[in-house]
Amino acid sequence: MKKERLAYFRELLNERFKVLLNEAEKTVTGMTSDKNTFPDPTDRANLETDRNFELRIRDRERKLILKIKEALARIEEGTFGTCEECGEEISEERLKARPMTTLCIECKTKAEAEESQKAALREET
After folding, report:
1. What is the gyration radius of the CA atoms in the chain, in angstroms?
2. Nearest Cα residue to 16 out of 91, 71, 57
3. Which domain range does residue 95 map to?
4. What is the number of structural domains in the chain?
5. In the chain, at which end, N or C, are there fewer CB atoms within 10 A of the end residue's CB?
6. Do 74 and 63 lie in a common domain?
7. How far, CA to CA in Å, does 107 sit from each of 47, 63, 99, 117, 120?
8. Do 89 and 71 fall within a single domain?
9. pLDDT digit string (tens) for the chain, length 125 residues
10. pTM: predicted TM-score of the whole model, two decimal places
11. Are residues 36 and 57 both part of a single domain?
């Protein structure tokens, strides 16, 4: 991949990384403030439900941050944009949509079909 395209993807990944870190910081700040105390049990339950939902989102974002770091490392190593499964180049359109991807669309489709089959077999048992 050309240097200018790698620079584009590096910037895209870094921007997503910053956004995710900012969201995580907002969550920590919001959850450590004492302003969210409610004497009513229903209000406390609603707050707890909202917090649990937000923590699940942040956990998914934490995993995404790790994938972004891995993608940035692949840029530095010179392996960014190469499918880990088949070794072919990942299309630029796919990288624009999901720059942290490690699989080309064909290999990802195949992996999803295999996972779907495994899930169907688990449901049958």
Report:
1. 20
2. 71
3. 83-125
4. 2
5. C
6. yes
7. 42, 21, 16, 15, 20
8. no
9. 789 999 999 999 999 999 999 988 888 777 776 566 778 889 888 888 988 998 899 999 999 999 999 999 999 999 999 999 999 999 999 999 999 999 999 999 999 999 999 999 888 87
10. 0.80
11. yes
Q: Look at the chain and count its residues.
A: 125
Shared domain check, 56 and 7: yes
The tokens for 62 are 């934490």
Provide the H-helix boundaries in the chain.
3-32, 41-77, 92-97, 105-124
Which tokens hold the place of 43? 């209000």
The CATH code of the domain that includes 13 is 1.20.120.910
Q: Which pair of tokens denotes residue 56?
A: 């699940």
The structure tokens 């999803």 sit at 112
